[in-house]
Amino acid sequence: MRTFPMRLLLSAVIVAAFAVTSVCANAGSSTVSKVGPLKLCTYSTGDANEGSQTLIVKVVALGGRGVRGTVRFVAASKKLDRTVPFTLKKSGIGLVALTVTPPVALTLTTTLRVKPIRTRTDHVNVKVTDPNAPTAPQGCVAR
């Protein structure tokens, strides 16, 4: 016959095993259900007189707070192949900036490290901006 402390210890071990199992199951699957669809917006800014512009990429995945990812910039004509890491902030938004010399055609491959991994590929043409042109519309226009 078992003693009372032994029964208490055995009960505690069983409860702990179920608690750890449920936490592990939720940790692996939580990113799938909470992170919304992956959206991408691009803006370019810079001075035409200097000959370079900054391409700003806005990655949006609602509910993705703290999720890490990468944006890969590839331009065959300019021999550009760069991968920039980012982390989605509290609102599910991550910003990445890259200086480019226009005109250039870029292929952007955005990857979020969630289960299953989400990837999105977009093609962006960066043209020389006219400093006298009207300002771009406010907000993010999804591509």
Please state the second-level CATH architecture of the largest domain: Sandwich
CATH topology of the largest domain: Immunoglobulin-like
How many H/I helical runs? 1
Any idea what the shape is? elongated
What is the arithmetic mean of pLDDT?
A: 79
Q: Could you tell me the radius of gyration in angstroms?
A: 23 Å
Report the end-to-end length measured between terminal Cα atoms: 70 Å
The helix fraction, in percent, is: 10-25%
- Structural class call reads alpha+beta
Largest sheet: 4 strands, antiparallel
Number of domains: 2
What are the low-pLDDT stretches, counting only 5+ consecutive residues below 50?
20-31
Task: State the main characteristics.
single chain; 143 residues; alpha+beta; Immunoglobulin-like; 42% strand
Provide a compact summary of the structure.
The chain has 143 residues and is an alpha+beta fold. The chain contains 1 helix and 7 strands; from the N terminus they run H-E-E-E-E-E-E-E.
Please tell me about this protein's structure.
By secondary structure, the protein is of the alpha+beta class. The chain has 2 domains: 1-33; 35-126, Immunoglobulin-like. Helix content is 22%, strand content 42%. The chain is built from 1 helix and 7 strands; from the N terminus they run αβββββββ. The protein has one helix at residues 4-34, and strands spanning 39-47, 52-60, 68-75, 80-87, 93-100, 104-112, 118-126. The strands form 2 sheets. It has a 4-stranded antiparallel sheet with strand order 4-3-6-7, with no helix packed on it. A hairpin with a 4-residue loop joins strand 1 (39-47) and strand 2 (52-60). The chain is elongated and about 85 Å long.
